[in-house]
Design a protein that fits this description.
single chain, two-stranded antiparallel sheet
Length: 82
Amino acid sequence: EILKEPNVYRTYEAITHYGEAIKTIINEQCGDGIMSAIDFYCDVGTTTGKNGEKRVVITFNGKYLKHLEQKVDENTAKSPRD
């Protein structure tokens, strides 16, 4: 299984652990909505920490999609039962 690979598991763990905080920051800075995983780019690089250690930097770059409430009276599609 892919989650048994240490790098994949640690990335998954970090996203799971910080997911709620990331969601809150996205909503505070952009409004109520989500980051698209379709129009999406990911960049992986390195930097040097304060003690000289190599550190990993992962950047997610996704299009912001504002939440749109869908209302029945605005639905223009015909029902298949009509």
